[in-house]
Write a structure and sequence with these properties.
By secondary structure, the protein is an alpha+beta fold. Helices cover 19% and strands 36% of the residues. The chain has a five-stranded antiparallel sheet. Strand 2 and strand 3 form a beta hairpin. It starts with 17 loop residues before the first helix and ends in a 21-residue tail after the last helix. 28% of the residues are buried.
Amino acid sequence: MNNPILRSVSDEVEEITEELLEFCDKLLISMREHKGVGLAAPQVGENIRIIATSQWEKKPKKDKLLWTTIMINPKIVDKSKEMILREEACISLPNSTGMVRRHKSINIEFIDTKGQKQKKKYKDFNAVIIQHEIDHLDGILFMDKVEPEKKKKPTKKK
């Protein structure tokens, strides 16, 4: 990926303005239009610490979207030792997927669009989404973390 913004550390948001709130709305719309589960500001050309995420509930036969959230200046303040391995993809890297190891659960602090500080815990797929998007704010792409494929041992011929 040759986009220098995607490889830069994003700046903290200092003030919530009307212009910033309009950007947040556009970020959510763009995430939905691309059928993504998350989107970070650098992916749409803004080098600021804002992510749009969706939260999902696992149902017996399919996942159910619960809600979407804008997180301003998100920060992981605690993470589980337990890790999970999941296939990831990215709007910025079309047609690329890979298995990435992430923390199973995270505690996160962020500011919502009303300027209120929030503290929440996320686990499983929801935690993966947020970790993926926060990586974008730090100039990291999921491909940087893809697990090397296990090499198959050659089978002996009889």
